[in-house]
Amino acid sequence: MDWLDQVKWDAQGLVPVIAQEHGTKDVLMFAWMNREALAATAARGQAVYYSRSRQRLWHKGEESGHFQQVHEMRLDCDADVVLLSVTQHGHDPSIACHTGRHSCFFQRLDTRAPAPQWQAVEPVLKDPESIYK
Amino acid sequence: MDWLDQVKWDAQGLVPVIAQEHGTKDVLMFAWMNREALAATAARGQAVYYSRSRQRLWHKGEESGHFQQVHEMRLDCDADVVLLSVTQHGHDPSIACHTGRHSCFFQRLDTRAPAPQWQAVEPVLKDPESIYK
């Protein structure tokens, strides 16, 4: 059975993908792939996602230069989620988020406040306007 | 604005959730939460997901005893994915997967084979039949 056929694609033909940094094990981002994107990722060794908003393949780094070199691809027990181990290229320290931050998961729930609230707790490493120009 | 209102729930009222182990930084599993599940997770400090197959709240560990203590909750840049930092209780070494493995992401793409294939590369730590009895 073809490895692409073993993935349980959802009703939109997509699978959720988690990108984890190889060195730090930080979770960098979450995105989606369709069959073509997953095949392209394996073929070129760099992460190629499917952009649901733009409805097309999205070679991560195509605009920012922040490519993701893929070391390993894993599939979960239900065959419906993919985990990538990546090296995030293009900036040191690495930037995976379009906001210019290291990781997309930069908002932490602060439960100490009078009411819980999401707080941005990671610095912007590079102005997004200078990333996407 | 209420922290639960800041989450961009999908058309089904759900948000994807990644559970990462606090100590090892291993990605343990991926699941979904609805508003009630996210509120319950924050309130009790243990992961409560929404089971799409059973269409009800699923307090992780309710059958297996493998509870997840939540240290931190994060929200991504688009406010549509949640990342949990958890301690996986109930077994040592920790078991998050219903197959009795440490992590749900135990299938690795082997690209060396004549054709690429997913290979189970992590051991079963406990027989699932003795976990769910």
Structural class of chain A: mainly beta
CATH class of the domain at 3-93 in chain A: Alpha Beta
Shape estimate of chain A? globular
Low-confidence stretches of chain A: none
What's the main sheet of chain A like?
4 strands, mixed
Assembly status: homodimer
Backbone CA Rg of chain A? 16 Å
N-to-C CA distance of chain A:
44 Å
Domain Phosphoribosyl-AMP cyclohydrolase (chains A, B): 29-106
Cofactor (chains A, B): Zn(2+); Mg(2+)
Catalytic activity (chains A, B): 1-(5-phospho-beta-D-ribosyl)-ATP + H2O = 1-(5-phospho-beta-D-ribosyl)-5'-AMP + diphosphate + H(+); 1-(5-phospho-beta-D-ribosyl)-5'-AMP + H2O = 1-(5-phospho-beta-D-ribosyl)-5-[(5-phospho-beta-D-ribosylamino)methylideneamino]imidazole-4-carboxamide
Keywords (chains A, B): Amino-acid biosynthesis, Cytoplasm, Histidine biosynthesis, Hydrolase, Magnesium, Metal-binding, Zinc
Can you give a write-up of this model?
Two copies of one chain form a homodimer. Chain A is mainly beta and 133 residues long. The first copy, chain A, has a domain at 3-93: Ubiquitin-like (UB roll) (Roll). Chain A contains two helices and eight strands, in the order E-E-H-E-E-E-E-E-E-H. The first copy, chain A, is globular. Chains A, B: It is an enzyme of class 3 (hydrolase). Chains A, B: Zn(2+) binds at residues 77, 97, 104. Chains A, B: Its EC number is 3.5.4.19.
